[in-house]
Structures are given as structure tokens and as C-alpha cells.
Amino acid sequence: MTIENAPRDSGAREAPHRGSELAGRAITLLIVVGPAVALALALPLLWGRAIHLRDVIMAGALYLITGFGVTVGYHRMFCHRSFTPNRALKIVLAAAGSMAVQGSLIGWVANHRRHHVFSDTVGDPHSPHRYGSGPAAQLRGLFHAHVGWLFSSDPTSAERYAPELLNDRDVVLINRLFPLFALGSLGATFALGWGLSGTISGAITALLWAGLVRMALLHHVTWSVNSLCHMFGSRPFSTKDGSTNFGALALLSFGECWHNFHHACPSSARHGVLRYQLDPSAALIRLFERLGWATKVRWPSDVRIRACATP
Fold this sequence. Notes:
The protein is mainly alpha-helical. Helices cover about 60% and strands about 0% of the residues.
């Protein structure tokens, strides 16, 4: 029996109204496809002057800010409570993660926690193994795990999977303001480009590279953890699912690609626990700890790491 045909028990909430569902899919399509379309349309117009050093610097800075907002904030802190932040750090990370435009905080957390509960089984919102094991089924599964699941009518209950966030007034406010953070993430690049260059073309190239392309790259890196890191790579740790380590994404994913250990020990603040496994997110959490901004950090012990190792 494939995951697709098995009976479902995912804890999903009642499906939304048809109109809101279509609107949601349209917005998702815009977010997924929009950057690529904008790049294809803009490059012919800007050929020969399509990118400047300031665009690269802005893109890199925003990739770091929004990327760590997702990996350290959305994922390790809010989803898995790998450490306890002070209030200011909590708010900053929530806002930075929202600017990645990967979805509102509470919805993102609920979906990810559900993924862990049902990983690669019935109820997992983005397993690449849902259609079977043949070549065609695997390709279909990879597409589903990467972007296809974003368009499925399979909502996740925040009341079940993220109840404590619904009781956090700071989180609820930032969650409600997600559209403003998303627009601000792009609008800020246009304004900075205009301010630094003094020209509309400078504003457009900044929006293109530091806004749309930066956002699209981070999207696909995050989605690759859902798809590639459940299909290809090594499995040095024992888990009940298909999670893997895919080292090629180490820097771009800020250490999220060490997905096999993450599934073996989800609450760990560090994912890259073996020699030479780069984990920039863990390094940033260590810095927060030394500054006194993060406490109760869940660092994995050597005993725990050995216990999780594949026999």
C-alpha cells in the first residue's frame, strides 16, 4: 500500500472554504513561480547592467538574516524548543523567519511538527515516498515533497500541533502581521537599492537579486531538506523514516541538511554532530548562549550521539 492510498489520520483540521483555498493556492503559486518569472522578464531588459556589488552584498546579508530566522528561529527554537530565548531574541527571530516568506510562523511550525509525527508515513504533509518505490513514483514523490505539497488540500491543525504558540501574544501578533513582513522583505530591497544608487534601475536590480532571487534560493534550499534529505545521502543514525544527511547543502542550509541526526534527536540544538559536519545554525545558537540571550540549550551529549548511531 502506498502512502497516497492508505487511510489518513493526520490530525488535519477541516478543509477551508473553496474560495479561500483557491486564493491561498494563487498566492502560493505567485510565491513559488513569481521570482523565476520576474528574473526571466527582467534579465533581457537589464542585460549588461543586471547586477551590481551592492546587490550581491544586500542579497547575502538578507539570505543570512532570513535563513537563520528559519533555521534557528522557526525550526530549532519554535518547532523543537532546542533553547529558550529572551523575549527580544524571540521576537527578532520570529520576524526574521517571517521575512523569508515561507509561511506564517504558527502554520510553519504546525506543519513541521506534523511531519515529525508522521515522517514518511500516512499523514506526513511532504514525504517523497508517498507514491511508491518505482522510478516514476520516486520522481513524482520528489516533486510532491519539494513543492507539490504546498498546493495540496491537506491543512494542519495549529490547535493540535502548536497550541502553546497560540497562547503567546508576541507570536500571535507576528503571525498575524506575516503579510507585512513578506512585503517588507521585498520592499526594503527596492528602497535600499533606490537609496544607494539614486536610480530606479538600481532599485529594480536590488529588488530582483536581493529580493526575489534571494528569496527563491532560500525557498528551494528549505524545500530540498524536505525532498532530497528524505531520498538521497547517508544514514549514520537509526530512525524509523527515510531521513538522510546530504552534505552538499551544508552551507546553504546552515546545517539543516544533517537531517538524519535531526530525526534521530529532534530537540538537539546541533544537527551536524559528526566530524567535519558544518552547522552554522548551531554556531549562532552557541553565540546567543554565550551572550546570555539563550538558555537551556539542548546540546547533544556524546552518549546520546552514540546511542542514536546505526548499529
